[in-house]
Amino acid sequence: MVSKLPNRITSPPWRQLIQWIADPIAFQARYGRQYGNLFTMRLAGLGSFVVIGDPKIIQEIFSQSSKFDVGRGNLLAKPLIGQNSLILMDGDHHQRERKLLMPPFHGEKLQTYAQRICLITEQITSQWQANQPFVARAAMQKISLEVIVQVVFGLSEGERYQQLKTELTDWLNMIDSPLRSSVLFFKFLQHDWGAWSPWGKMNRRKQCIHDLLQAEIDERKAQRNKKDANILNLLMAARDENGQAMTDEELRDELVTMLFAGHETTATILAWAFYQILQRLDVCDKLLHEIASLGAMSTPMDIAQLPYLTAVCQETLRMYPVIPVIFPRIVKSPMTIADYWFDAGTILMPSNYLVHYREDIYPNARQFKPERFLDRQYSPSEYFPFGGGNRRCLGYALALLEMKLVLATILSQYQLALADDKSVKMQRRGLTITPSGGVRMVMTEKLRKSSTTEPSYKKQPV
Ligand code: HEM
Fold first, then answer.
1. In this structure, what CATH number is given to the domain that contains residue 106?
2. What is the count of structural domains for the chain?
3. Which one of 54, 154, 182, 382 is at 20 to 30 Å from 357 when CA atoms are compared?
4. Is the model's pLDDT at 397 over the cut of 80?
5. C-alpha distances out from residue 171 to 79, 124, 141, 185, 200, Å
6. Which residue ranges have their beta carbon within 6 Å of ligand 1?
7. What are the pLDDT digits (tens) for 103-119?
């Protein structure tokens, strides 16, 4: 059967917009139940979007990446990341920039971060006080921010770094609820009425971050030794086909993109992992057993290869999408996918939430069952927490490594418990989805000293 814009939701577009902003997960669950795995939503002022929970269609989208534009569909993120971000690029420009940004996130380079991630985790958690509840997401954000700042800049100290971390955290906290996130969706709210207006405050914080980044760029330009292969140095050394270097504005936007995309996401997924693990003694015991089985001479890369730990991370990523749908794919010229005819300009939104909760692929999908990832392999269109095709998350390998090392380091050093027994829901935070309340937990006992005084694994040169 051939049809255009399948299963249109019939309620008024303004109502759909409000529902989408307020709770994009409940929105998808509700209309998924009503219409199945393919429906069209219409968001007032933003347009129509075909939400897709069918792996067959998604597989076609991922395998024909060049037939879709993505960057121009991500304009909502522009006020946060700036107009020169990889996320907003398409075509050759996007491909070139990705090639440039990729090396520090993969291969050998990644291994060198492993030791650092463990040390950062130990340093930050050593400040935890026994029996004092804290918010897991905020605690994890301290770790992931430190990691990404070190990866992007290759540095870990100085006043500018401290300031950058504070400003970035405060900036992102300005859109920490569905109501406060609405500023990103309504153009009329995006007016700077002065320092006390929401947009005015956002702009001032952004300017402050830009100033800090500019100061860093200026300092690097004056430095002779730029051999360290961190992202900032690589970007500064890059030249296009005409021998032109990136402008300061372009550099700044890419740095903000990495800082923005690379730390909240990882912090959020770690908070969810603790939420699940601490409710399940059996999972926690299995993890501790597996980590202990490595022995004293293991390296962080040995930890990263543990099968059950990997399955726990995969299952967490299945259950909790970090963004409500992956990036929109805009059809460049008319095409047929799985019997549906789509005009040029149609916006397709593959939904990892809809696919990851399909009972035919994940029986008892609402249950946290890491074993499912040990029992079978899922195809890239059945399981895509990091998206797919030519837009697959640039930092997925770093994020997975960080997840495993942070979990293993913390679980083997501290006894933890959830501070509340109420269930935690998925809630919008800006353009991402986060646990409501951030998951409150408490450290009840320190199990052993940190490796800074007593190595728990063999140290590798950093
Ligand atoms: C658990 C953590 C993370 C999750 C769940 C996640 C998820 C995603 C998803 C779903 C996409 C869209 C992909 C698509 O539409 O096909 C994406 C894109 C992206 N992510 Fe991540 N991400 C995470 C961590 C990171 C980290 C650590 C970085 C580090 C820099 C990063 C950088 C990016 C970038 C730059 C893009 C845009 C890629 C492009 O447009 O070509 N992400 N991520």
1. 1.10.630.10
2. 1
3. 182
4. yes
5. 12, 21, 13, 17, 12
6. 86-87, 98, 257-258, 261-262, 265-266, 269, 322-323, 326-327, 385-388, 391-395, 398-399
7. 778 877 788 889 889 99
